[in-house]
Amino acid sequence: MRKEEYLIPRKFNILYADPPWKYERNKVQGAAENHYPTMSIEQLCALDVEKITDENCTLFLWSTFPFLPEALRLIKAWGFTYKTTAFVWLKQNRKNKDWFFGLGFWTRGNAEICLLATKGKPQRKSAKVSQLIISPIDKHSKKPDIVREKIVELMGDLPRIELFARQTTPGWEVFGNEVKSSITLSEKEENYAVCNNSKGFIPHKE
Predict the structure, then answer these.
(1) Is 206 contained in some domain?
(2) pLDDT digit string (tens) for 120-166?
(3) What's the total number of domains in the chain?
(4) Burial level of 74, CB count in 10 A (0-12/13-18/19+)?
(5) What is the DSSP letter of 126?
(6) Domain of 179, in residue numbers
(7) What percent of the chain has pLDDT over 90?
(8) Which of 67, 69, 77 is nearest to 200 (CA)?
(9) How far apart are CA 96 and CA 111, in angstroms?
(10) How far is it, in rounded angstroms, from Cα 64 to Cα 62?
């Protein structure tokens, strides 16, 4: 990640992350690497995310279904407790709005999920936010913009940051190698132990 000086000294109540997962299968991994640099689960776990989180914080973390074990490892390494699936994105084709079907070693993949995990005792502000998102696919791996709006509606207008961001958004601080980062994140050695103690398998991408 790009090294920037700290511009935002405060801690955040909302973390929104779409990690650049590194897949085991060469063909799938090669396709991802054509669009952005990927990171291993160990590299992701090692990021010292705890230093930017408030004592009451909610994490929204994108994952594919095959990568669920690794997503749960990452949640634990970052100091959060898994609660539920915040959002399920059902993908449509861009042109005709029919259902999009990706690859799959079992069933053909269509949906992606955004997990919700907490630290401390964050409070929900709205009971009207739906889990379901139906939206066309965009450029490689880009998630629907409406997700950010739903997060703010659910949790309130709190200090928030998007990790591994690919764009800047009003009201959000950002961290990633495709944007001018608001913060730096160093490695925390203790996170390696947490990650390895909850070690699962490196799954195949659908």
Answers:
(1) no
(2) 999 999 999 999 999 999 887 799 999 999 999 999 999 999 999 99
(3) 1
(4) buried
(5) -
(6) 12-197
(7) 64
(8) 69
(9) 18
(10) 7
Is position 184 within any domain?
A: yes
Please check whether residue 184 is in contact with residue 47, taking contact to mean a CB–CB distance below 8 angstroms: no
Q: How far is CA 55 from CA 79, 158, 160, in A?
A: 10, 13, 13
pLDDT band at 204 (very low <50, low <70, confident <90, very high): very low
For the domain that residue 129 is a member of, what is the CATH number?
Answer: 3.40.50
Distance CA 14, CA 23 (A): 27
- Specify if 204 maps to a domain: no
Mean pLDDT of 171-187: 90
Q: Which amino acid is at 115?
A: L
Q: Is 203 domain-assigned?
A: no
The amino acid at 2:
R
Q: Which residues contact 197 (CB under 8 A, 6 or more apart)?
A: none
- pTM across the whole model: 0.86
> Quick one: pLDDT at residue 7?
52
pLDDT at position 97, please?
84
Q: Cα–Cα distance between 4 and 36 in angstroms, integer?
A: 19
